[in-house]
Specification:
Elements: H1 5-18, H2 23-31, E1 40-44, H3 53-57, E2 61-66, H4 69-77, E3 81-86, E4 101-106, H5 117-126, E5 127-139, E6 147-150, E7 161-166, H6 168-177, E8 180-191, E9 199-209
Length: about 210
C-alpha cells in the first residue's frame, strides 16, 4: 500500500470490494422504502463514504461524522457529502442539534464497540420522529463469546483488533430505550479476507424513531 492520506482511503475501498462487503447495499435496501429524495441523512463512522454514497445517488443530503482524518479526507474527495465532521462516536453529545436529521446510518462500525446503548440514545436525539436508523452489527448467538480478535490484515490496521458481537435481544432493548422500534432486519455474511475463508455473521437492522409517550 502507498503511504499518504488519499491512498489509504483508496486502499480501504479496494479492500471492501475484494472481500465483497455488502453491508452498505443491505442497509440502503432496508431503508429505501422509508426515504425520500431531498431528506437528510447522517452517517456516523462514515469512513470513506461507502455506507452513504448510495443514499446520495438516491437524492438524499448526506452528512458525515468520523474520528479518522484520513477517512474523512477520502470521503471529502468523493464530493457527495453536504458536511463532514471529525468526532469520536464515544464522545457525547454529537455535534448536532436535536432532531437534525430525517435518517441516520452506521454501517460496518458498531462491531468495534463493546457498549452501543449510548450511541443508540444519541441517535434517538438527533433523528426526527418518524425517521429511520439503519445499522449493522456482528450477530451473537447463544453460547458465543461477546468478543473476538480480528487480525490486523483483515481490518486495515497495523495490529490485531478486538471486535464485539451483539445479540438481538440486547439490540432491540437498546433501540426501545432510545425511542426506536425495529421495522426490518436481515442476516448476511461478511468476510474478513479477500480469499473469503474467514466469514462472520452480520445482521442489519432498520428502526423507526417514534414519539415517546
Amino acid at each position: 500500500m502507498e503511504t499518504g492520506i488519499s491512498s489509504y482511503a483508496d486502499y480501504y475501498d479496494q479492500q471492501a470490494e475484494m472481500v465483497a462487503w455488502h453491508g452498505p447495499a443491505v442497509v440502503f435496501g432496508l431503508i429505501y422504502p422509508y426515504a425520500d429524495a431531498g431528506q437528510s441523512l447522517l452517517d456516523i463512522g462514515i469512513g470513506t463514504g461507502l455506507g452513504s454514497v448510495l443514499f446520495h445517488r438516491a437524492g438524499l443530503r448526506v452528512f458525515g461524522m468520523d474520528n479518522s482524518i484520513p477517512m474523512l479526507v477520502g470521503a471529502r474527495s468523493k464530493a457527495f457529502a453536504q458536511d463532514l465532521r471529525e468526532h469520536d462516536m464515544t464522545s457525547m453529545p454529537y455535534p448536532y442539534d436535536q432532531g437534525s436529521f430525517n435518517h441516520a446510518i452506521c454501517v460496518g462500525t458498531l462491531q468495534f464497540f463493546a457498549e452501543i446503548d449510548s450511541i443508540f440514545l444519541e441517535m434517538g436525539r438527533v433523528v426526527r420522529y418518524g425517521g429511520m436508523f439503519g445499522f449493522t452489527v456482528v450477530d451473537r448467538r447463544r453460547g458465543e463469546p461477546t468478543s473476538f480478535t480480528a487480525c490486523g490484515e483483515h481490518t486495515q490496521s497495523e495490529r490485531d483488533v478486538m471486535m464485539y458481537r451483539h445479540p438481538e435481544p440486547d439490540v432491540r432493548a437498546f433501540l426501545k430505550a432510545a425511542g426506536f422500534v425495529v421495522r426490518a432486519d436481515l442476516k448476511f455474511i461478511a468476510f474478513m479476507n479477500a480469499e473469503r475463508t474467514a466469514p462472520i455473521r452480520m445482521k442489519a437492522y432498520v428502526a423507526q424513531r417514534e414519539p415517546r409517550t
